[in-house]
## 1
Amino acid sequence: MMYATRARQARPELFVERPTIGERLGLAHMDWVLTFAAVGLIAFSVFTLGQATLRDIPGSPNYYVERQAIYGIAGIVGMLILARIDYSRFRELRVGIYTFLCVSIGLVFVFGFAARGSRRAFELPFFAFQPSELGKLLLVLALAGFVIDGARRGSPIRRTIRYLALGLAPALLVFLQPDLGTCLVLTVGTLAVMYFGGVPWTHFAVISGGIAALIALVLVVAPAVGHPVLKEYQQQRLTSFLHPSAEPGGAGYQQDQSMVAIGAGQKTGRGDQATQTRLDFVPERSTDFIFAVIGERYGFLGAAFVLSLYALLIWRALRIVTL
Amino acid sequence: MYLRPEDRARPSRLALRIAVVGGVAVTLFAILFFRLWTLQIIDGASNLAEAKNNRTRSTKVIAPRGKILARNGDVLVDNRTSLALQVDPSKLPEDPAEEAAELTKIAELVHMKLPQVRKRIAEEEKIVAAGAPITVRRDVGYQLIYYIEEHKGKFPGVTVEKVFVRNYPEEDRAAQVLGHTGEVSEEELESGPYKGTEPGEVVGKEGLEYSYDKVLRGTPGISRYQVNALGEPTPGGRLTSTPPTPGDNLKLTIDPAVQEAGEAALAERGLPGAFVSMNIHTGEILGIGSAPTYDPSVWTKPLSTKQYEALSSEETGDPLFNRAIESSYPTGSTYKLMTALAGLENGYITGSTVVDDNGYIELAGQKFENSEGAVNGPISLVHALEVSSDVFFYKLGARMWDNNDLQDWSHKMGIGVPTGIDVPTGPSAEGLVPSKQWRDQLFEEELTERPWSQGDDVQLAVGQGDLQTDPLQMAIAYATLGNGGTVVTPHLAKEVMDAAGRVLKEIEPGPRRHVKIDPESRQLIMEGLHDATAGPGGTATPVFAEFPIEIAGKTGTAERLGHLNNQSWFISLAPYPDPDIVTVVTIEEGGFGAESAAPANKQILEAYFAKQLKKDSEEATEEETGEVIGGEEEALLEEAETGEGG
């Protein structure tokens, strides 16, 4: 997400005019570099998806492109609207947001439907709603509110413990769904908010130690004593990146194949000759492994371009924090 | 950020934290770009190769093996296509019950029983290199292919393969020299003549198929097609295909007429034996055969132990054994050629040396007699050869007993040394010329009860005793005399031709060596040999008296240990006095030389000289009737000869 910045000083109004649409949208105050990066990524993703999924659904070659384009447009509209809102106001809603977040995730356990052995979403008439997805954003908003609100209350240690508890409660709920990926995102989000919120380095050192101990406990000690916390496949997902070629065809297969795909792109890519991603050697090419598609189809040029856009995005986002 | 100033973290602290995050981001992006660079630019080529390899599957396309043709283009060996049901053992289910069920299904397909299929697989696994598909049944019908193609899912690992199988239109013709093919075995894959072949490939295992394997074996083609991650061919995914290169054809020196006559002559007598007919100037073998013989097409199917025994046991006469080049025979009087040469060239005798033949000689109390008690009186070399006086040669042998003269001349003429023929031979093919040194050595090692004696050389002088040779070595010796001293390299291959009939290579192995023979010696011996077939007392005169072409020849009647009847030999050089071909016939237990081997030899010569004999008889008829007959036939014959190899 991005947030346009406002001028810090109101400009002198020499003439009273009806503001143009551009002015109403605050275009003049937009960070164009940031916008370029975001829109560029959207456009490139639609383009790539269009080429990569032509034959995926027989009879409707544009199935994925259409959907991606619709989401992209919806996202741009959402961006323009959100850019008009002073997000610091959400601070006042922090308790409501946090409650909604936890309750909606909790309700999934009761009303959600199960897919691939995990309950994560509600079935709504037109689409499936997954509270934890929205929760990623809501948690950051709410937690930021709590951090600012409590900036001067209590000792630093109590504060740190409070933030951790607030952040990790929904993460734990999500972990129980089970949805390890989102759980990790929520945890990292919590730590990031705390970081920018000024939690002392010493506390982070302690937290890092705790995390290391937890990892050791979960991955090594717990399975050894016969009470594994993680399911077998979850554990493999967390560890297989360490040794992708250990079992080709097994847990590391996807990584192996996607690396081959990216490498095969060489300087300028293979275009439609991109057999690795076209012939299913790399699975999930329209979602998780879309970067392999970019790497193979457009080569170093394409992949470096996308990485550059991300770098741009992060640079501008960090820059906004300093404003 | 719109925070009250007091709410904000102290700017310097925040800036530091952002700088840290920025630094981490820069580092991470640097790593990403670096990884991207290594993957795509540095390792790009190998990754691309792997990706390409990923999506392609190759299948081998078998190349047909070259044909083997007779001198005139007659096909001796070619190929027929056969459908073979093959099973890839690695694709069979691991669970024993499931495996049994699967094998039962396969067995039903080919009308076999489960134990039979298991036995076949077990047998083939022993022979065939690991990883090669195993042929369960050969020569299955086309219906089966369609059925298996339609029910692919039901038969994992089962394929119906089109294979080329050797085909022998003339059945047992020249069986032992042609040899046979077979699938390359695991040990053979790693080294030796079959390097570069793949498991399951068919290679030459014996005979000419072996020695000219590189010529005859083609290069398999490769068909490459594109597959998806499940290994299914993708539509339009045919990539490149390298067509198989058929093997080259091999044209032999074999003259089908000579070959047929020789084999018929042996078959008629129904006894084990062999014949060789060879051009004395070039070493081209016109006919070669060994009886009993067999049809090599037995090798195209798996041989049972019983079948193999029938082909190699002593009771059946060991049809696989090539008596023409691998036997260890005494030769009887045909050996007198060597004795005569040694005697003349070393000055023991001249053409006018007269020896008194009173029917026997006595050495150290042992009596050596002429056969059938003949007494020839005073006799010279030419006459001794004509009537085959043993006493003449006994005496000659006795004079050479304590030196190596007879052995030296035997070796010079090719006896007891490898012949250099272009088919593989067993260890027995070298033969043995017994000598003083050889026997004394054996005696020293206590492998025999007595040292070399005069009697040994006396025996050798007439082709008896410990002598071990074979028809081909005798043919070389006679050819060397006939051509005046050139030891030729006997060979069966004449030309290598491509599939279109173009000659790629002519095979002309030069002479192995030259022997200096005094023309006068040659003249004397040739005369004696001629008289043996034409003189009044000639041992073979009764056989050849009516034969219109003059020849030189020698009968042999050899006593062989463990055989009740004598072995019959006859060697001819024809035509006399300037011979072109040498023909050797030997028949085990065939009696006197003139009894069976000489008539058989004549049958072969009749075939070789058929054209000339026919012309002669036509001329004779012409004189009588004044008509020309058979001109048309001859034109046809000529056409057949020039139209070869097309």
## 2
Amino acid sequence: MKLPLAGVRVVDLTVVWAGPFGTLLLADLGAEVIKVENIHVWQPLTRGSMARPPKALMGSGPSWTTGYPDDEPGERPWNRCPTFVNLYRNKRSVTMDIRVPEGRKPFEDLIRTADIVYENNVSETMEKLGITYDYLRSLRPDIIYIRVPAFGSSGAYRNYRALGVHLEGVSGHTLLRKYPDLDVSANTQIFAGDYFAGTHGAFAAIAALHYRNRTGKGQLIEIPQVEVATGMLAQFLMDYALNGRNGEALGNRDYHGAAPCGVYPAKSGSPPLNPDPSWAPIPRAAQFEPQATDRWIAITVCTDDDWRALGAVLGNPPWTGDPRFATAEGRRAHHDEIDRLLAEATRQWDVWELTRALQARGVAAGPVMNARDAFEDPHLRARGLFRRMTQVDCGDRDWVGPFIRTEEGFLPMHRPPVAMGEDNEYVYKTLLGYSDAAYTWLLEHNYIGDRFDDSIP
Amino acid sequence: MPGLALEDVRVLDLTHHLCGPYATKLLADFGADVIKIERPGRGDLARYLNPHKNDERHPEKSGIFFYLNTNKRSITLDLKREAGRQVFFDLLATADLVVENFRPGVMDELGLGYRELRARKPNVVMLSISNFGQSGPYRDWAGSELVLFAMGGEMYSMGIEEREPIKMAGTAALFQSGSAAAVAAMGAVYGAKWGGEGTHLDISIYETQAGGVDRRHASIIGYQFSGRISGRVGVGAVLGFPNGVFPCADGFVEISGGGSRFPGTVRMLGSPPELSGPEWLEPAAALRADLKERFDAIFYPWLIEHTKREIWQLAQENHVLCAPLYTMEDLFTDPVLRERGFFVEVEHPYMGRFTMPGRPFLMSETPWTLRRRAPLLGEHTDEVLREIGYDGERIAALRRAGVV
């Protein structure tokens, strides 16, 4: 299949997660996404928490933050950070310092060839750089400019600083996703809003391309992260809109009343390594063996038939026949009691055996899968979500590929995650027509490169 | 008059429940003509899902159905009957996109599989949304929001170590996956409109979570790189203090004020002399329990004397990352969100007048508009069938036969 966005060029000024996820979806669909970076400016939380993290930092946090390849920062750590590297698949990277004329000129030339400019910085950051919609339009009249500010580019909060976790708070997520019996301070910091901001930005971009093709007009798009993230709480929004209720955190229970619905303990232990012989894991040092052994099963009983099926799988212990539990209403009323009884029963089971037994009878159930379960999952392996490719500073790895799939399989991963500055030659020489001498001059005078300035920690 | 970005896009929407309707809502909200095809008599399952106006379980009083179906039209059609299929094929001739979220295989059983559709409309795009996808070992497994997020998302590391993992609020994962499906559909429709080729999209909720940006892509890569699994542990002392959720006079605030932001935190607290010594600025200060104890003794009383909005503003003035934890009431009454035009007033024959969030985002040339409230069941059956050339008699015959 010809990729739908082939021939569309995106100038990518995004940082952290919300913006890069949006441009990632455009890249997967075939757009040429060119990430513009600056070897003199470290963007916090975009290629790592530090440009040059000390070895002591390796493993000091969750592995999604500090699990660098083989626990080594490496020569160019910014190309190896697990928090970000996978978001750079299918993209290109160029370096230019747009604060000075030597970088501004190629930046403007690049905008002239672009269809979309995409950014998600604090509103005033772009204005300070002189990058406004009018400025971009003066370079490319039908440009589509996508901004993804935290609180919007108007109003009293427009320059308020925030990371994803703070946006979760304002958009209402944090108070509604806690353990019902514990204070909200027991929550883990998560970033649901980055997902929504990314998908909505990509959606808006393509809709605007379609409109431009029809009318010749570009436009300015604003994805206010807090506002768009409220959409994930639609039931709570509408209960307030219709009935004036604030709603409450339900933990793992079902908003729409399926009961029981929860996460229950299973027998501890690790899953069998590599259950699918059709792929071979990449060998790694023996000291890296996962420690996590707690196992949990998620179960949702949607119907009375499901309830009877669950009882049968568990060998029909007397409580599963308790008439108080025969209807959804009864099970909701006695959910705490059912949770206790069910947990005693599930504790005896291997999580995958119980999953298969319940699924064989049509009951929605599955393990709470840790990162290893996901990486080795037979379903994802059979469908081919992971793609083995060589990235210049990480080596041969199984990358998470595009999740959009057609009758021909998942969309291609045509480029491994891009290293900073990897496409300098392509952009300057091929796209912008710089001579070898002019390109070399930029390199030698340290305007461009593939390493962050040594002064950056 | 502002334009509609997708006014030349027609969608036949066979989806029900939450995930699929969110995908088609985005298309409808920006101008696509989304014809929602519902089962005669009962309609979309979401009509029976709470919240309902005054908790009356009436199919025209569901708030979640309203939210997910603005700007769509509704017709009823029995796809199991040959006459119903014929109506569907007549509609297909005018459509760019067909969206469905039945169990894998159901469209084929109905005689509406992709091959059948493509034979009748060569450049049609079909979007199939399912729990696990149209192929693979889990294809026929049952799913729920909890199960799909537990398996696909990074739920394992959410919560505290000694307790069970805990998911996101409400049915957030299904809306995330619906929005991912909308991107796929938008891309494919764009490709069909400007490149001429249709396609069959196979979107699995499980996979849109497994490849999702909120930690899971990173946890899979981090595991592969280091051999370690991200568990339910806090981010730890590296971020310094204060970091996390704290109580205040009227609720809670999230504050990230440690490390390089600690001097700002001290200023926010009014620069008390107890926090002015050099020991507070040493790199190892973040790890010293005695310092944290002394800090907390000043910090907690200060928090209790301030409201969440006061703290938010003081934090911003002092470059401390902070946010109030909003309730729905806080959100609906926030003056800045109101001033920005985030809310709209709507009216519905069964639910009356109410205020709800409107636009998901802003487009300068083709802004979000509420062209239609959510449709009543079958409200547009006659209108839509007339548009494709059916006369009153033919429609009446279909209605008598129970097809529409």
## 3
Amino acid sequence: MFCKKQDAEGTMARQLEAAGQPGETSAIGRLLTWRQRRLIVAFLFVLPALINFAVFRYIPIVEAFRASLYKYSLLGGFGEFVGLAHYNRMLTDPVFWRSLQATLLFVLYKVPLQIVLSLGLAILLTRQTIGTGIVRSAILTPMVTSIIIVSIIWAMMYQSQNGLFQSVLVTLGLRKIPFLSDARYALPAISVMMIWKDIGFSFIIFVAGLKGIPEMYYEAAIVDGANRRQLFRHVTIPLLKPVLMFVIVTQTIFSFQVFVPVYQMTKGGPLDSTKVIVYYIYQQGFNFQDMGYASAISMVTLVLLLLISWGQMRFLRSDD
Amino acid sequence: MAADAQQHIARRRPPTLRAFRGVFGALRALLYVAICVIFLVPFAWMLFGGLRAEREIFRYLTPFSWRTFVPIEWTLDSYKTILGLNETGKAAGYNFGRNLLNTLIVSTAVVISSLFFNTMGAYFFARLPFPKKNWLMIYVLATFLIPFEVTIVPLYIVVRTLHLDNTMWALIVPWYASPFVIFSLMQFMRWTIPYDLDEAALMDGAGYWTILWKVIVPLSIPGLVTNALLEFQFIWNLFYWPLVAVGDRNIQVLQVVISSTLGQTQQYWGRTFAGATLATLPVVVIFLLLQRYYIQGVANTGVKG
């Protein structure tokens, strides 16, 4: 397909050449050949997007690296050059290491459970019956809702006195649980909420992936006497693997960057148990006005995420 | 785990009630109900909570029953308050209507500008001959690797240098082009629009610009709708960026104002419910109406991308 596309473009270019008028007499016409002008026009189509990516995606990284080498405050801008001092500070900053730990723990709570649950839901709902449409819409509604709204409502559900969950517990004759104000429960509570919120994304992709498996594989396996479990283990899982890996990689990257629920529900507490890395960056940059240190942590996290996705993709390839 | 093979055959038939026969059928029906309850209860609590008097919310909280949700006395008081339409609202300085409008302006501006510039970019990558185009594609796709939330602080530094901070432009300009939309529209143009069409137009002497708007765009409508929908939802739901980029409450978006005035204190639950509903309803309604396109868009990220 790719080659065919190249061919088509080649033909188009030749046709263009043939269609051009050689007798052009304007000023630009004399300076540039007809082909050069075509290339410039083509480039103008993509230029606005290229500028956007340069200014708002690439330059921020360069600026962050620069800022990480200086004292940089919101009010004063660039200050004294400090070299690698911010990076050194990170090595001995216990809060940084704790935030890294909280982030990893969150990813570990959330990603595996979300994938198992959404795969289960996808398998349950591939069969079209009355009601599947409604169930699907229900699963997808949290996904299109704003993360800040979800965090506000769930904070009220988890609330230690009048929360909706406390109402259920009391009605069942159980004791109230201070979900968000107990260091043992806060991070798992946020993870549960985030699974509820993000499950629609992996669900849609798994449903599409399951539909993409040709039926003849199942039919062939049934002829060979495979039972349900074997069908799942030896047909569904291997054929779903690329999709599965895509979901694992993207969900790990997304979850690693969790910020809003922590900002809204716990402010990193209790006892730093939910102080994830992006929240720590926010705190350093905007609460403590230390943009230099915040930039340094951003740079390290950026490299860390690149390493994680690179590692996961390598793992996926070597396994094939 | 389920009878996959049977499912794959059953899928082709029109929906029936057959799946709900027998013990397993009953279990399946029960499971369906349970799933709906888990995913919809928080929304029901929010929606009805905004339509009842403040004291009712707490009085009927326990025991957990249908009264926990359904109001006895229906009232729009919470909405009037947050929109600044009654005395309480005016005294507290609420003007959520203004903030809702801001969210709407920002989302619409981003969707329109992003459709315009990304369509041009996608057309370039899908159709136009250009030397070393693959390198430009790598330049675009590499931005996928830049983690979004991690680079908010650096992005703020850049936007501040450009003196765009604390203006509505800060909420619009960074998003007028998106690598995701360019990639997905490019795929759409490559797979679904025949090359013969634009070649014929070229032979007739039409320029790239004319071909794009007269030939390509009319045939890309499903792809454009999908991407407009994803983009709208992305911008509407943004929180971290407007939180840091804009300080002035008059130009701030609804999501941030709800969080800063109601979410943090957790004092007035009725108002919080009403505000949350206001911020949720538009995007959920649009989603339910255009669900097919939305699912298509998300599914494509995993299967084709």
